[in-house]
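Narrative of accomplishments. A recurring question from our advisory board has been how the design workflow behaves on a single, concrete structure rather than in aggregate. To address it, we present the structure tokens for one chain from the evaluation set, followed by the sequence designed for it. No filtering or post-editing was applied between the two.
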């Protein structure tokens, strides 16, 4: 399954009113994520017109790499793996947008080994993963493996050729969502796992129509 933002981007191209079925409120979704207790990336949120400010420069210097999301209520852009403020500046200026009408979120970027999505609801808990980063997930560039929690509480995959490494990683990611009562947090989640096996959640949505 492609990421939520890609669904909206492609629906907009075809004049499909996806917002009637899927609700997106990026600022609230991010605040929900960062108050959830889930492992997350270091981040900086500023108005897009402030992209030359010292706070943005210092954040880019602090991390070996960053990824950026540029957005307003109707339009979203993002780029992974930027190195330093010069590349951030170059990317924003390449978008040909009115920066006064956008906000930016900048996150630390730790090179990824896995990316994926989780849907957890009344009908069950489902996880989709790829070897790759969230850009591969967003665009469905690589083949997904599809896992689920069985009625007995066991993680299983539909595919028969899933590696032990992916199974262990999926188990560890899902463990982050497990509550003290043994249930799973409800919602839609996007995550990546770094080459150092650090888990980062990137999105957490609960408003499904």
């Amino acid at each position: 399954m492609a990421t939520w933002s890609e669904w909206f981007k492609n629906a907009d191209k075809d004049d499909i009113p996806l917002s009637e079925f899927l609700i997106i409120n990026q600022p609230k979704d991010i605040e929900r994520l960062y108050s959830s207790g889930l492992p997350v990336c270091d981040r900086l949120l500023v108005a897009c017109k402030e992209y030359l400010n010292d706070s943005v420069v210092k954040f880019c210097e602090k991390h070996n790499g960053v990824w950026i999301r540029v957005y307003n209520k109707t339009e979203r852009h993002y780029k992974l793996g930027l190195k330093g403020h010069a590349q951030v500046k170059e990317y924003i200026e390449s978008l040909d947008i009115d920066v006064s009408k956008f906000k930016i979120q900048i996150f630390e970027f730790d090179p990824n080994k896995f990316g994926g999505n989780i849907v957890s609801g009344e009908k069950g808990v489902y996880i989709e993963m790829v070897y790759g980063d969230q850009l591969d997930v967003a665009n469905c560039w690589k083949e997904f493996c599809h896992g689920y929690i069985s009625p007995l509480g066991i993680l299983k995959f539909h595919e028969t050729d899933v590696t032990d490494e992916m199974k262990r990683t999926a188990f560890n990611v899902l463990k982050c969502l497990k509550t003290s009562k043994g249930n799973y947090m409800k919602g839609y989640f996007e995550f990546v796992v770094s080459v150092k096996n650090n888990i980062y959640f990137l999105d957490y949505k609960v408003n499904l129509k």
